[in-house]
Structure formats: structure tokens, C-alpha cells
Amino acid sequence: MAVTEDLKEQEEANPSPEEKQQKPQLWKWSVIFLCLYGFMAQLKPGESFITPLLLSLEKNFTREEVTNEITPVLSYSYMTVLVPVFLLTDYLRYKPVLILQSLSHISIWLLLLLGTSLLEMQFMEFFYGITMAARVAYSSYIFSLVTPSLYQRVASYSRTSVLLGVFTSSVLGQLCVSVGEVSYGTLSKISLGFVIFGFVLTLFLPWPKRSLFFNRKLQGPEEASSAELDQMNRNCPQPTAVKPVSAWRNSVFFQMLKELLNVVKLPQLRLWSFWWIFNSAGYYLMVYYVHILWNEVYPAIENKHVYNGGVDAASTLLGAMASFAAGYVTIRWSLWSELVIGIVTSLQAGLLLLMSTTSNIWVCYVAYALFRSSYQFLVPIAIFQIASSLTKELCALVFGVNTFLATILKTVITIIIADKRGLALAVHPQFLVYFGYFTLLAVIYFGAAANVIIKHFRNEKKPVTPNQNGDTELCSTVMVVNDAEKLTNGQV
Known about the structure:
The protein is mainly alpha-helical. Helices cover 77% and strands 0% of the residues.
């Protein structure tokens, strides 16, 4: 049986000319279908209006219950399921986790339609946390369908399909509420219909044969030789006591964990990981509570005057434009990263202060759109700076660890300032806390920027002795080569 399996693997690694012609068409259709699913999975027109629904007469929850008892569950759920979902995504090869995500979407809208108690709304937020954690399955699934040379292209396809889905969903929801004067309950039924269709699509997704950590498969001629070596090793006596330990130590996941310790020593990776952890935690806290803030600033009597969907659509479009523009920013990031992050963070702190003090809902809307777009501007830069010098597997692990640490930080802040067991602050004082949080981060970034820039210009002013000329030229050459390598890696 083992020999038969090895022969099958060898045949897969060396396909016939006819199979080679069919495979390009196969992966193209797989990517198109996955992007269609990514678009349809975002079509939830009622998502921008969940908070108004909870505060409306249809559900009749108080603002304190929504702020201090219902919304905090999202952070707790996300933190609890993030690591298991991350590992199961790779171990089960993506598709089952996408099915779980679709079932969780269905549970959310069923609870919003049928649920009336506080506990049921907390369960709704719990399932919402599962859907957020399962996003990693979609973002990494597409890489299992194509070769590394196509990663950048298909990543842009999948990201675009998601953004188009969010934009279309927000516009559709706003049109239903403002033009069609559809009730929040009817909007929830429409959303339920879309997520059920998304669930049906997941059942027809192709099942990948490999994944990053647990289901790795060597490609090409190496696979045959590997199979032969495995067959030879089966006939060789090996000590059974050490086998499990050595197998674990030789596993890809263990090697990645060891390599992760070296990542901390790299200044740019350390800086952008710090940004990913601390700034994304603050960003998502703002996103979770901003709809409650809008309801407090402008408690609209009629549903048609609630513009949550339009604002979400506009901010999504502005964020996509900012992300696109970030790809054309060419500066010396090793010198100016801290300063750029400091400027953007201080801008975000100012926008949070504006949102927490203004009584004009349109000012709130504009500040929110600018806040989101400024964050989205730095996301692709952070991804490039972290990923350009790492392997695909280590990159996935670094992003996973960064996201988990950000989730822990977000949960701790939620427990302290939002949960009823903590300070249980109302939404306006919460935004003042977020303003202080981003102000502190901006001060740290500006301090780090001043330190880096001063060191740089001091080193430039140092006189170069004749004995140092060779070393200086060699150092410059190495820096240029390293930069070129990083750019090449980033484009793969």
C-alpha cells in the first residue's frame, strides 16, 4: 500500500502533457470561484445597521447593555477561538473552516431575527468572533491553489473581491434603508438569504491537497526521491523511544517557532510588528464602538436618516484608494518608518478627539472615514516590510502571532474600560481613552524617530579615515544588495 501511495504521489509530481494543459484552466476557475465566494460572503446589507437594530424598538436594548454587556463579547470570543481556528485552518486544509464561518454567519442573522434576550445577543457576538477568526482561512486558501510566482496577483484578486463585496453590501444596505424604507428586521432577512447562499457556495469549493504547516507536499522531482528515502527508512531499524521527539523537532512548525526568535532581532520587523499589535488593537476597538457613538451623537427618529451603510461604503472605498496609493510611496523606510507611523498615529489621535467631542454627526462620519483610510494606508506597507525578508511559512506565523497579541491587548482594554465588571465607561469617555492611547503611541513613535534620525546624521558626519574606505564601500554595497533582495522577495 505504501509503495502504491508513493507511485501516486510521483505521478502527481510529474503530470502528463495533457494534464499540464488542463491545470492552468483548473487553477483559474478555482481562483475565480473562490473570489466569487469572497464577494458573496461579504454581502450582508444589514451588517452596518446591527447596532441601530439593537437600540431600536424592534429589540429595545439600552445603550448601556449594548456598550458594556453585548459588544465586549466580540473581543472575548475572537481571542478565545483565534489560535484553534488558525491551527485547524491549516490542519483541515481551509475548506472546513470556511464552512464553519458560513454556518456562524447564518447563526448571527438567525439570532438577530429570532433572539430577544441579552444572552442570545451575546451568543450572536460570540459567533461574530468566530467569523472574524475564520477570515484567515479565506486569505490563505487561495495560496494553496497556485504556484508562488502567482501569489501577488491572486492575492490582489482575493483582496479586491472582498473590498468590492463590503462596498456593495454597504451601498445596498443604505439604499434599502433610505430609499426603500426597509425595516431593520427585513434587512436582517435579506442578509440571512445572502449568507445561506454563501454557505451553499462553500460546499462546492475545491479541497486543497496541501497547506503551509501540517499538509506540506514537495513539488516536482524532489517528491519522488523523498518517497524513495521514506521507503528505505521504513526498512531501517530506528529507536522507537526517540522517534516522536525527533519527529516533532524536525517538523516545519517547530522550526518556524525557533526561527521566530530571530525575527525579534530585526529592527524593521520589530517596529512594524509593534505597530501591527498596538495600532490594530486600537483601530478595531474604535470600529466596534463607533456605531454606538453615532447613535448617541445623532439618535435618528426615522431609520431612513441613519447613514451607517453609506459611511461604511465611503470609508471602504477611501481605504482601498489609500492602500493602492501606499504601493507607490518610495522612501527610505529604514530611516523614515518611525516618523511616518508617528505622523499617521498622531492624525488618528486627533480624529478620535474630534469624534469624542463633536455634536455634529457629519463631522463624526468624515473623521471615521479618514481614520479608517489612514490605517489602511499603513497596512500594505506593514505587510511588505514584514513579509519581504521572510519565507511564506514564517510570514504566516509572524502575522498569526502579531494578530493574537493584538487580540489579547484589545481584550484587556475591553475588560478594563468597557465591560460592566470593569469601569463600564459610556461610549464618549471610551473614545477619550482611545485618544489618550493613540497619543501615547504617537509620542513613542516620534521619540523612536528622533533617535533613528539623529543616529543616522551623526554617522554621516563622522570623518572617514583611509583605512575605513574599503569597509565603507563594502557596507554600502551590502546594503544595496540587501535592499534589492528584499524588493525582489516582496514582488514574488
